[in-house]
Design a protein that fits this description.
This protein is α+β, with helices and mostly antiparallel strands. The protein has 9 helices and 5 strands, in the order βββαββαααααααα. A 5-stranded mixed beta barrel has the order 1-2-3-5-4. A hairpin with a 3-residue loop joins strand 1 and strand 2. The relative contact order is 0.13.
Amino acid sequence: MIASLRGQIRHVGLDNVVVEVGGVGLMVHTTPETAADCALGTEVTLETTLVVREESLTLYGFPTADAKALFEQVQTVSGVGPRLALAMLSVHSPDAVRAAIARADLVALTKVPGIGKKSAERLVLELKDKILAVGVDPASLAVQPAGSGGDARAEQVRAALEGLGWSSKQATDTVHKVTTAPEAPTEVAAILRAALRELGR
């Protein structure tokens, strides 16, 4: 198991980075916010989880052990895989996810693409007691989004949102709203963060 890694950033995508460790470039899937915080040529340390499938080995990376722990915890719920777990952390911070589960806040949970009412109810049913058992006070946690040009930049962001599970219409409408707002961001990472904030409302 690759539990963590440290190395130089060789590539930054919208939801992934390539980290060179010992001469080997490792593709690490992350939230858009984590990817946006990485800069080419800089050194990064990520907490990681290696997901093993018959046909693939996929590495997921997180800036904190807390985010990694939540990523792994939500996958203990039936029907929640790594892609959906990463989407949860793309929309909400780890504390916000825990707060939503502890409060049985189905509205916040269903803002994550791929999570419907039944899935949200299952998350609450299976994890609420575990979260409260470690002393989390849901009243002290605020549910906040985790996040955060030209046509080409907008298209990149739209594709990234669709990759995270939002519909083409949701992605297109949100990107349009963000890029036509007063003082609209112009960089891809900034547009993506703004779009994630908008979708997380």
